[in-house]
Amino acid sequence: MENEIKRLLGTIVHPETGENLVSGGMVEHLAATADKATVVLRFARARDPFATKIKKQAETVLSEAFPQLEILVVIKEGGQPPRPEPKQTTTTGSIARVIAVASGKGGVGKSTVTANLAIALRNMGFRVGILDADIYGPSQPKMFGVEGYLPDAVQEEGQDRIVPAEALDVKLMSIGFFIKPTDALLWRGAMAVNALKQMIHQTRWGTLDFLLTDLPPGTGDIHLSIIGELKIDAAVIVSTPQQVAVADVVRGVEMFRNPNVNIPIAGIVENMAWFTPEELPDNRYYLFGKGGARKFAEENDVDFLGEIPIVQSIMEGSEAGRPAVGIDPRVEKWYREIAVRIVEKAMKNG
């Protein structure tokens, strides 16, 4: 009977670790008599948020299999004795400043802003890298024309190192180099977090003045994991002028301002602020409303970094793998002004 109980417990998987109760070592004690079965579960950390759910699953599975038995599932408090953690080696030691680029929702041009800011910083003489951590839609390989890049692994000082792509003098590591676009949405929880940790700590970044981190849209576990792995000096939040988009900015601001996170917000960039046709260079058409992000910034004690209009060259540059800052002087001017403000903020916070 105990073997059958163990087999049934092996069908229950911990949602965070992906391991079942038996192989994950969570079954501390198991005993069965003619009228009673007792299972003691102990998890790797105290107050595991999934403990109650797993306890109920175990009770249900065992009660259905053995309706004649009294089933007792016990959760022991305190967690397992901590295992010694292997010494964490990291390749981020020569990165001077890390800037997180975030957005409250998708579709606001966050990745385009990241790519063009990287080129603006490069034009100012800085050594720049990009960590594309947007597991739901990695865009940086396309932005820089390196979609077919397959990272090599090399040995340095007995450690495996991942060689980043280099394009336009920017070092680039993307989750998109390791997964097919059709698989991106399948990456969840622990799998995505482990891949991102490896990218952060094993990429051969070398010496960088700025590492821009292109975060997934919204707020969630992926963001908190990256924040826990990287010392982020400042956050830049990208929005569009619509009030609905600005409403999503609130969540991003609150996440970075949370006392447990406490990352300085460099400010807000309003993307797609207006449209000017080539044949009417003095006309501005506010397709998505006007000044919503600026108004939010003023009312919530957040700096407003600048506006980026809808320009044909920005869209064409993204499609062609050449960010527009490198080919259009007008775009370079807008982004340079924003980059200067970000540098000032990052240096001040550091």
The H-and-E topology, N to C, reads as: HEEHEEHEHEEEEHEHEHEHEHH
Low-confidence stretches: 80-87
Q: Percent of residues in beta strands?
A: 15-25%
Find the structural class using helix and strand composition: alpha/beta
Order of the strands making up the biggest sheet: 8-9-5-10-4-11-12-13
Q: Compute the gyration radius: what is it?
A: 25 Å
- Average of the residue pLDDT scores: 84
Question: How do the strands and helices of this protein lay out in sequence?
Answer:
Layout lengths: L1 H8 L17 E6 L3 E6 L9 H15 L4 E6 L19 E9 L6 H14 L4 E5 L7 H4 L9 E4 L2 E4 L2 E3 L2 E5 L14 H14 L5 E7 L6 H9 L4 E6 L3 H15 L7 E11 L16 H8 L4 E7 L1 H9 L8 H21 L1
Parallel strand pairs: 2-3, 4-10, 4-11, 5-9, 5-10, 11-12, 12-13
Antiparallel strand pairs: 1-2, 6-7, 8-9
Helix pairs in contact: 3-10, 5-6
Give short descriptive properties of this protein.
single chain, 350 residues, alpha/beta, eight-stranded mixed β-sheet, three-stranded mixed β-sheet
Describe this structure in words.
The chain contains ten helices and 13 strands. The chain has helices spanning 2-9, 51-65, 110-123, 140-143, 189-202, 221-229, 243-257, 292-299, 312-320, 329-349; strands at residues 27-32, 36-41, 70-75, 95-103, 128-132, 153-156, 159-162, 165-167, 170-174, 208-214, 234-239, 265-275, 304-310. It has an eight-stranded mixed beta sheet, with helices on both faces. Strands 1-2-3 form a three-stranded mixed beta sheet, covered by helices on one side. Strands 6-7 form a two-stranded antiparallel ribbon. It is elongated and about 85 Å long.
